[in-house]
Specification:
Layout lengths: L3 H5 L2 H15 L5 E7 L6 H25 L1 H8 L1 H4 L6 H29 L10 H18 L10 E7 L4 E6 L9 H16 L3 H19 L15 E2 L1
Parallel strand pairs: 1-2, 1-4
Antiparallel strand pairs: 2-3
Helix pairs in contact: 2-9, 3-6, 8-9
Length: 237
């Protein structure tokens, strides 16, 4: 299956990022891995909730029309009410409610299909705290999946970019946290996110990798027996 993440960076961008990682790692025992993903989660709950809300909103107008015509419709199709001069308000209300529910159900399925095909729609239903939680959890999974937790000196550093959430997260191994705080890493992540928003994603990522490389070289300088433990190629998922 094709991923948007695979085409987010051009081939030239990928080579430039790889070169910067190689440059930085020559000066430090730290290991940097950059991962870009389409999204952090499938958000199946958003598919359901978003579809219901959109379907209900769209259903208001047609069900309102049916409510306005309810007296004529009920007189015509319900013999028991044909003799009444006026249909009771309660009957009209329930008729309007039933048509609203019916239209909501009818619209629900095509809208669900649309949301699944166009994931960007989900962003409008995602709360900021949810996005932050999901990218942190995805970063933890990626950290283990790509073996950043297996480096010799516990000095792995992950750059995770998620397109749907428009978020960047940097996660480090416990060896890094003895010298560099998560707050400092968050600052580098914000710089990358800002660069992406400005339309210069590769440049922003390279700048932040170089910046964090300065701190890594200071606190975790390269050792004579250092080897490149992890791939420097950007990973798209």
């Amino acid at each position: 299956m094709s991923h948007k993440s695979e085409k987010f960076f051009s081939e030239d961008d990928k080579r430039a990022i790889e070169a910067v990682i190689s440059e930085v790692e020559r000066k430090t025992s730290g290991e940097i891995v950059a991962v870009i993903v389409d999204r952090c989660d499938r958000y199946s709950d958003i598919d359901v909730i978003g579809s219901i809300l959109i379907a209900a909103f769209i259903s208001v107008y047609p069900s309102g029309l049916f409510f306005m015509l309810s007296e004529r419709i009920l007189h015509r199709f319900l013999p028991s009410m044909s003799w009444m001069a006026e249909v009771p308000d309660m009957a009209r209300f329930f008729f309007g409610l039933c048509t609203f529910v019916l239209f909501t159900i009818i619209f629900y399925f095509p809208i669900m299909s649309l949301i699944k095909r166009v994931p960007v729609v989900k962003r409008f239903f995602l709360h900021e705290k949810r996005k932050e939680r999901e990218i942190r959890d995805r970063a933890i999974r990626a950290f283990h999946e790509h073996r950043l937790d297996k480096t010799r000196d516990a000095t792995g550093v992950l750059f995770l970019i998620s397109l749907l959430e428009r978020k960047v997260y940097i996660l480090a191994d416990h060896g890094i946290y003895t010298k560099i705080t998560q707050t400092a890493l968050d600052g580098f992540a914000i710089a990358v996110a800002s660069g992406i928003a400005e339309g210069r994603p590769a440049q922003a990522l390279c700048e932040s990798i170089r910046a964090i490389g300065v701190d890594l070289a200071e606190h975790f300088p390269a050792k004579p027996d250092d080897v490149n433990e992890l791939s420097n190629k950007i990973i798209a998922e």
